[in-house]
Design a protein that fits this description.
With about 260 residues, the protein is an alpha/beta fold. It has six helices and 14 strands. It has a single domain, classed as Metallo-dependent phosphatases (Purple Acid Phosphatase, chain A, domain 2, 4-Layer Sandwich). It is globular. It comes from Paenibacillus yanchengensis.
Amino acid sequence: MNVLFIGDIVGKVGREAVKKVLPTLISKYQPHIIIANGENAASGRGITRPIATEFFEWGIHGITMGNHTWDNKNIFEWIEDEPRIVRPANFSEAAPGQGSTIIKANGKELAIINLQGRTFLPPIDCPFAMADHLIATVQKRTKAILIDFHAEATSEKIALGWHLDGKASLVVGTHTHVQTNDDTILPQGTAYITDVGMVGSKEGVLGMEKESVLYRFQTQMPTRFVVDEGAWHLHAVHVKIDELTGHATAIEKIRLTEEQWLLL
């Protein structure tokens, strides 16, 4: 099974980049299932139903979220009706939506679990215990399992990777928007990367206009961050999974700038 996971899509620039590049990625990697993190898709904070619908129309099969899940308040009105979107499973039991799902596409099945870290983020339920619980449940359907761990601390992400080695097919980190260079297959067969990266402007700060971010750092005064509209870059990973064992056999980072894409 070929799986393509696209990093955090940030704002309109990120959405337009995905729309342009996705056909090229599909042609090159022939993914059976495509997953993307969409928690920053709407002006950098949250997601809307029309945006989610666009993603599905473009060929994305499932969407993961993170700490900005609830920033667009109308999500409460529709998330229960959209089984292809998962929010962190270790949110409160009162939270609407679901933390895991089974994506079916092109004759394949992939379980998706979304988790959020607790280091430097709001205190929530243990992602390690929740991962164990949900993996035991979805393994009854499929051995191909993807974990999107939306977390701040690299140490927490690496620790979860080791904890889930041999239990999940793929553990990808999201949230920090900077692609790390530690893509690997762990000893028991789990593909791992600390952070996939982002899709959005490479001329700002993590996709936001640099002026407001600089002002915040230099003055410690509150200011509103706005999505930057400069030239984009796109980060993703392509992973091959042995469906019989659930183990990954290959992982490849994808990093593409707008300038590179224009030369293709």
